[in-house]
Structures are given as structure tokens and as C-alpha cells.
Write a structure and sequence with these properties.
This protein is an alpha/beta fold. The protein has 22 helices and 19 strands. Helix 1 crosses helix 3, helix 5 packs across helix 8 and helix 20 packs parallel to helix 21. It is globular and about 65 Å long. InterPro entries: LRR_dom_sf.
Length: 624
């Protein structure tokens, strides 16, 4: 291991490296093992939400994830021995001792000896860094932990508690260990009273609250009171996620908007799993809203204007919702045109001005990104230095008001992420307007056509999705259904920063002879996909005409490609696959159609391709 003095990098540079690799679990582990300074800067990131790292991994099976979650929970629970485990009115979720110590006769005769036992000093206080406690299912890890405890004779959980009681006890121990450092808490709503309310005064840095398993008719008044009291005392709670429990007999949670209204200035409202959220959209506070994520199950009602609501969200950066109005972004188009008379210099000057929402601060404390300051914890990992940048993790997790100032022209939103669904007659015009209005800020664009689940819309013969102006920040484009068929691949030439492209065709395409002209037009234009020269990931779902000649063009144009999915596509052969594998040195994952290697001679060729590049993960998929 490199000693600290041999790593001549300032802390600011190390922090930049850590933030850049924040989604790469293996890279973070490598940093931990590299030097003492990297260990100190990386641990607060690696263990702030370790269960999420395991759950989001695509390399492990479900059984492997359960094993790792079990081991991780054991590590967190044994980081520190509970204080006064035998004191009255104190719930003890676990004990760190040998199995025979828990025999009733041994406990009766040796209770004083057990009380005086101390754990060996922990090398790292892992539980201290567990600041992003997103909701996790404790059931399976606790079942496995009980089994492991009895088999290994190392430590056991409290056998006197039922599994439901044990889940609550463990949740309490995780929250109450260091509540002043916690930024995110996710719990079933029924546990709020027992887990969160007793610690509301010490949860002084809580930013995000995630509530799940909300049954219809559940009394939400205690939760509303907790939010109001915490917000009035600490002024930090700015984000909320609401997940209702589906009840076919009473499918209504239309009172849950009161949870959002209880917050003084909500900036993030995640209602993807709250079905009725779109119906009460007009009751959600919009003054400071930065992120609005709605479910796609229902369309907006007609008794209020969605464009008027969005026009009031002047700080909005991320939007996910269904649309039923093609003019949903007309307000943004009008505002952009109104700035035309200002001139380029004036618009640039306004864009650089920093306008903060109510209650926001101009400072950027990095304890939001890493762990909180270690001033009150002697001997712990030092607090990292400030980093004046916006990372992908900041955009994809939670957006605390103190992270960054909102750089935008005052009086208008600057959307970075847009995810829409709807019928094509409304969806395609809305997308065109969105791409036009937010051309300078758009980074993520996703759309799904509801025609995929309904009937085919003949107006696609005259409706297209395209643009002729640069989208300099767009990095992800994901289109599904009719809207993917309506997309003009020539528009990719105006997306110089695009690194991920996913296009999914409707499943019925080519089902009738009337699709022949569409197929021929697609064949003539498929070469335009190579305009996206900086792609890292390309996924083509459906019957896209992918020929060997196109694969050859990819090796010459899209040389940075690391992931390619062409399972359901037709027209290519193993010769084209061989050329692709030989030409793309960075290719790590390739999905092809299983029928390509149905014959035994072809199977031998495929095995030879795999042997030629053993690091390449070559997957054979079924054509749907």
C-alpha cells in the first residue's frame, strides 16, 4: 500500500476522482486498497449506501445479492456493540457473542460477566458512513443471518423476537446509531412513529424521506406532524418519495398530497409509484420544485392545465410524466422566443446568474456528497474538501438545495432530464417542442408511445421526430414504440455528446405487407446511426435491419462502443459479428440472436469468437 506522503495529490483532486467513479463499485474498492489517503476519501462514499451498490449491480444473481446483503448487514450490526444491552426499556436487536453464552442457565449465572464483555476494536466504523439509508428489505438478510449465526457460532440475533419485531429493532438500531449524519431515510410508513419520531430532534441533516407501503385509509396525520415538526426545527427536509400500496378494491390515495404540502419548500417529489399523483398535480407546491417524477399509468385530468403548472416551476430540472396535450411545452417555446431580442451576450450573462430557491444557501458543503463533518467524531475520517462541480451521482440520487445554484435564465425552467409517455399525436409534437425549448440544457431524453399498448396510429406517415439544431449536452436518448419508428436517425448528427442510444420498435412491425415500404426506408437510412460517433452503449430492440455492412461501418465510426444489443434485429451473420468483434477493441458486452448459431458448425464458430476475445461477454438472446 502506498503511504500518504507518496501520493502527491491534493484532497480536491482525490475527491474529483472519487466522484467520477462513484457508480463503479469495483473501482472504489481498488481505491480503498491503494493508499491511506484514498481509503480516507473513498470509504464515506463506498459505505454511504452499500445496499444500493449491491442491488444495482448487474453482475450478481438474486441469490448472490442476498448473500452479500446478509454479510453486509452483519458487518453493520457488529460495527459497534449496543450501549447497555440489558438496560430496561432498551431493545437489543443483536448480540455479538458465542452461541453457548445465550443458554438461559449460562446467562443466569454469568450475567455480570456478559455485561462487562467488550468487543474487539473495529478497524473502521462502517455504520458511521451509512448516511443514505434508502429502503431495503430486511426480511431475507435477517432470516439468513439467523441461520448463519447458529451455524458459525459467532453472533446471533435476539431469538426472543419475532421476525416483524426484529425488523423494527434492526431499523431502529441503524437509524439511532448516528442520526445526525443521516441524509436519506426510507421506511414503510407504519414504522415512522416507532423509528423516526423518537429521533426527530437528532435527525438534523435529514434531506430525503422515502415512505412506502402506504395502505388505502392509513392515517397519515402522525407522519404529516413529523414532517412539519422536523421542517420547522431543522429546515433541511426538501425531498420526498411516496409509494402507495395498490388496493384493487379501493384504488385511491388522493390525500397523500398532504405529505408534500407539509414540507416547507419541497424540491424533489418522487411519485412514480403513487398512481393518483397526476390527478392532484395542481395541489403540489411548485415554487421550489426541481425534480418531479410521476407514474405513467394515468393521463392528466382535463379540469386543470398542466402547461400552467409547469410554467410556474421555474427551477424544474427533471420531469417524468404522461402527456395528453401536444402544447404542454408551449410556455417554454414562448419564453425562449421572448429572449431573442436580448442578444447572445445578455442571455449568456443571465444564464450565468445564480438564482436560488427559497431557503437555499450559496455554500456547497461536501458533507452532502460524502459523510458529514468529522469535527464531533475524533479520530474518524476527515471531511473532504469542497468540489465546485456537478457529478452524475448528484443528478441521479437526491438534489439537496445546497449542492449547486440553479444556473438558468430567471423566470424559466432549464430541464435536464425529460421522460414522457402518451399517444403519438400528442407525444411527438410535445417532444419536438421540448427539444427546441431546452436545447441548451437537455441531457436525458426518454419517451414511450402509448400506441405500443393500444392500436396503431396511421398519422405516423406524416408525423416525424427530428431536429436540426445542436443538442450539445444530450447524452442519453431512449425511444420506445411508435415514437422510435417516427425518429429520424439523421438527427443524431446534432448530438455530439450522445453516449447511450436505445431504440425499441413496436412488436407488430413487418406483420403485414403494408410494412414493406417502411422496411425499405429503414434500410436506406440505417447507416445514419453511425452519426453518433461517441456512443458507448447501443441497444436496438425490434426488427431493425442490421446488415453486415452496417456492422462494418460501426467498427469504423463508433469506435468507443462498449455495449451492443441487436438480439431481435435481422440481416446480419456471424461474418459480420466476427468483423465487429475484431474491429471494436473496447467492446465488453454483445447481445445477438440465438438462431444465428442454431446449426452445429455455426456453434463452433461462435465458440472460436469467444475464445478469441475472452473478456467479451457474448450473450445469445431469444427473438421476441
Amino acid at each position: 500500500m502506498v503511504v500518504p506522503s507518496e501520493l502527491p495529490l491534493p484532497d480536491e483532486c482525490i475527491d474529483l476522482i472519487v466522484v467520477y467513479l462513484v457508480e463503479e463499485r469495483q473501482a472504489l474498492h481498488a481505491l480503498v486498497c491503494s493508499s491511506q489517503r484514498l481509503l480516507e476519501r473513498t470509504l464515506p462514499v463506498l459505505y454511504r449506501s452499500p445496499f444500493q451498490l449491491i442491488e444495482n449491480s448487474n453482475r450478481w444473481s438474486r441469490d448472490e445479492k442476498e448473500k452479500r446483503c446478509t454479510a453486509l448487514l452483519a458487518l453493520l450490526l457488529t460495527t459497534r456493540k449496543p450501549e447497555h444491552p440489558t438496560a430496561p426499556n432498551t431493545t437489543t436487536a443483536y448480540t455479538h457473542t458465542h452461541t453457548h453464552y445465550n443458554h438461559p442457565r449460562y446467562r443466569h449465572n454469568n450475567q455480570q460477566h456478559l455485561d462487562q464483555q467488550t468487543l474487539p476494536p473495529a478497524t473502521v466504523d462502517y455504520l458511521r458512513f451509512f448516511t443514505h439509508q434508502y429502503q431495503i428489505s430486511l426480511w431475507r438478510p435477517l432470516v439468513n443471518l439467523r441461520t448463519l449465526a447458529s451455524e458459525e457460532n459467532m453472533f446471533i440475533l435476539d431469538e426472543s423476537q419475532s421476525m416483524s419485531e426484529l425488523q423494527i429493532s434492526v431499523a431502529e438500531s441503524l437509524v439511532r446509531y448516528s442520526p445526525g449524519d443521516i441524509k436519506v431515510i426510507g421506511q414503510p410508513i407504519e414504522r415512522v412513529a416507532s423509528v423516526l419520531v423518537p429521533s426527530h430532534e437528532r435527525l438534523r441533516n435529514l434531506v430525503r424521506l422515502e415512505l412506502s407501503d402506504i395502505a388505502v385509509g392509513f392515517k397519515i396525520e402522525p407522519v404529516i406532524e413529523f414532517i412539519r415538526v422536523h421542517d420547522a426545527k431543522h429546515h433541511t427536509l426538501r425531498e420526498i418519495k411516496i409509494k402507495g400500496r395498490d388496493d384493487p378494491a379501493h384504488p385511491s390515495h388522493d390525500q397523500l398530497y398532504q405529505l408534500v404540502q407539509a414540507m416547507r419548500s419541497p424540491q424533489v417529489v418522487d411519485a412514480r409509484h403513487w398512481r393518483e399523483a397526476i390527478r392532484v398535480l395542481h395541489k403540489i407546491p411548485s415554487e421550489c420544485l426541481r425534480t418531479l417524477l410521476l407514474g405513467m399509468a394515468d393521463l392528466p385530468p382535463t379540469f386543470f392545465s398542466v402547461p400552467d403548472f409547469l410554467s410556474r416551476c421555474v427551477f424544474l430540472e427533471e420531469l417524468r410524466m404522461p402527456v395528453r396535450d401536444e402544447n404542454v411545452f408551449d410556455w417554454a417555446i414562448a419564453h425562449r422566443r421572448s429572449l431573442g431580442h436580448l442578444g447572445a451576450d445578455r442571455v449568456a450573462s443571465l444564464s450565468r446568474s445564480r438564482s436560488l430557491p427559497m431557503g437555499a444557501s450559496a455554500q456547497v458543503p461536501m458533507h452532502i456528497i460524502f459523510s458529514s463533518s468529522s469535527a464531533s467524531y475524533p479520530g474518524s475520517v476527515p471531511a473532504p474538501s469542497l468540489m465546485p462541480m456537478t457529478s452524475s451521482w448528484q443528478l441521479n440520487h437526491y438534489n439537496h438545495s445546497d449542492w449547486q445554484a440553479s444556473e438558468h435564465v430567471p423566470g424559466s425552467a432549464r430541464l435536464r432530464s425529460i421522460d414522457l409517455c402518451g399517444e403519438d399525436r400528442c407525444l411527438i409534437p410535445a417532444l419536438r417542442n421540448a427539444v427546441d425549448a431546452f436545447r441548451d440544457s437537455l441531457e436525458f431524453l426518454k419517451a414511450m408511445s402509448l400506441a405500443l399498448m393500444m392500436t396503431r396510429v396511421p398519422i405516423l406517415n406524416i408525423m416525424t421526430l427530428s431536429w436540426s439544431w445542436p443538442l450539445t449536452r444530450l447524452s442519453v436518448l431512449d425511444l420506445e414504440g411508435e415514437v422510435a419508428l417516427a425518429f429520424k436517425l439523421s438527427s443524431l448528427s446534432y448530438c455530439p455528446a450522445l453516449i447511450k442510444l436505445k431504440l425499441s420498435l413496436p412488436p407488430y412491425l413487418y406483420s403485414t405487407s403494408e410494412d414493406d415500404h417502411t422496411l425499405q426506408a429503414m434500410k436506406d437510412n440505417m447507416h445514419q446511426i453511425c452519426y453518433a460517433t461517441r456512443l458507448l452503449e447501443l441497444e436496438l430492440h425490434g426488427k431493425w435491419p442490421v446488415s453486415d455492412a452496417l456492422l462494418m461501418m460501426m467498427t469504423q465510426s463508433i469506435r468507443r462502443l462498449t455495449r451492443l444489443h441487436i438480439v431481435s434485429c435481422g440481416g446480419y451473420t456471424l461474418d459480420g459479428i466476427q468483423t465487429l468483434v475484431n474491429g471494436l477493441e473496447r467492446l465488453e458486452w454483445l447481445g445477438i440472436s440465438k438462431w444465428l448459431c442454431a446449426w452445429q458448425p455455426m456453434r463452433h464458430r461462435l465458440l472460436a469468437i469467444k475464445a478469441q476475445k475472452p473478456r467479451l461477454e457474448l450473450v445469445e438472446g431469444e427473438v421476441i
